[in-house]
Design brief:
This protein is of the alpha/beta class. The chain has helices at 2-15, 37-45, 59-67, 74-82, 99-116, 127-136, 155-162, 192-204, 215-224, 249-257, 268-271, 279-293, 314-322, 344-354, 359-378, and strands spanning 19-21, 24-26, 34-36, 49-50, 87-89, 121-123, 139-142, 144-145, 167-169, 207-209, 229-236, 246-247, 262-264, 298-300. Strand 10, helix 9 (215-224) and strand 11 form a beta-alpha-beta unit. Helix 2 crosses helix 14, helix 7 (155-162) packs parallel to helix 8 (192-204) and helix 9 runs parallel beside helix 10. The longest helix has 20 residues, at 359-378.
Length: 379
């Protein structure tokens, strides 16, 4: 009891928030949401990694921050710090005839932003950075790209790695020279060029990601790569039949067989095709993967920023929706309310507690599992 009192006292001091219900604690002054002492303790212990979460989906705002890093303020930083997330994988989709130029500008822009805000952020380049980021009090930024169309030749892999890119999705939703995306009419798998690109990614230590890839392309990647292949942000097709952005059991089994990790999203139409859609539906995806291949192969890839798609500026939201095929199945809302806010990792942790996961398993899901596999890939 003494150690528990000490923990609760230190937690209250940390968050400056009172206990308002027996056994439940109001962690954030600006919110009436309450969390169990166990959830608060787990979040305090965890290295929390979100393997797909842009800093903001307000792309106009991000452009301003990149152009003038000093516009990002201490108040802005507090929102990310209080989220409990220590590492954000900020990959976006690039492509088209100017893919190389657009992607080098994206990566270089991020390097400029990080250099201008090194009191707040640090780039995650190596396994050792996972040890440093939490102790530093900064937020870790993991630079990735949700396409590999900018690799004009396999030599470009090393070039972008030198600029800080540590994860590359082989394709976005469409076909490129490497393979096929999830919404292409046909999936012919990975090309000879794609084999050479994967070999170079293995060589330099850049993670292969197949989240948006077609099924055949995904399976080919597992077969070709000598290192684990990531699914940073996807869902289970068996729980949402027919959705192209969800992974079939055959791919999920490969995640387990190759000692990799699959990140689960909270995107409404990926989680289920029915309404209502709640956090419990999202938790079903964590359960499904954990029961099939083991909880050590499950992580978080939210696929939203801290506020979610439904809080985007209306015109940007409209443009985003217009960029996808009808098979995406957009509905009125894209987010799930309980996990589309800055404190969503607390709600997810509370949900995993409800689902009877033990502490070590939850710490793995929150970030330990992705940290383990990235250490293998980057080493």
């Amino acid at each position: 009891m003494s150690s528990r009192r000490q923990f609760l006292a230190s937690t209250a001091a940390l968050f400056a928030a009172p206990a308002i219900i027996s056994g439940q604690y109001q962690v954030f002054n600006q919110s009436t949401a309450t969390y169990s002492a166990r959830t608060i303790e787990l979040m305090k212990r965890a290295l929390v990694i979100d393997m797909l979460s842009p800093i903001t989906l307000n792309f106009d705002l991000m452009e301003k921050w990149v152009a003038n890093p000093e516009l990002f303020t201490a108040a802005d930083f507090e929102k990310y710090k209080s989220s409990g997330i220590h590492v954000f994988h900020i990959a976006v989709g690039t492509g088209g005839p100017d893919a190389w130029q657009g992607t080098i500008e994206f990566v270089s822009g991020w390097n400029s932003f990080l250099a201008g805000n090194d009191q707040y952020f640090m780039r995650i380049d190596s396994p050792a950075d996972f040890d440093r980021v939490k102790a530093s009090g900064k937020i870790g930024i993991l630079i990735g790209v949700q396409n590999a169309e900018h690799f004009r030749t396999p030599k470009d892999v090393a070039l972008f790695h030198a600029h800080g890119q540590r994860v590359a999705q082989l394709t976005y939703n469409t076909r490129n020279m490497i393979g096929n995306g999830s919404t292409e009419r046909r999936d012919e798998g990975i090309s000879d060029f794609g084999v050479a690109v994967i070999e170079q990614m293995n060589k330099v230590g850049m993670a292969v990601d197949v989240s948006h890839c077609g099924d055949r392309t995904s399976l080919d990647a597992f077969e070709i790569s000598k290192k684990p292949v990531l699914v940073t942000h996807s869902n289970v097709r068996a729980l949402n039949p027919g959705h192209p952005r969800c992974k079939p059991d055959e791919v999920i089994r490969k995640v387990g067989e190759t000692h990799s990790v699959m990140g689960i999203t909270g995107v409404r139409m990926f989680v289920t095709g029915q309404e209502p859609t709640t956090i419990e539906d999202a938790l079903n995806h964590f359960d499904y993967v954990a029961k099939m291949i083991g909880v050590e192969h499950v992580g978080v890839g939210s696929d939203i920023d801290l506020d979610g798609y439904d809080d985007m500026p209306a015109e940007l939201n409209k443009q985003l929706r217009a960029g996808y095929k009808g098979s995406y199945g957009f509905r009125d809302k894209i987010d799930i309310d309980e996990i589309a806010h800055p404190k969503r990792m607390y709600d997810l942790t509370e949900g995993l507690v409800r689902r009877k996961y033990n502490d070590d398993q939850i710490l793995g899901v929150l970030g330990g599992n992705f940290r383990r596999v990235l250490t293998t890939i980057w080493s």
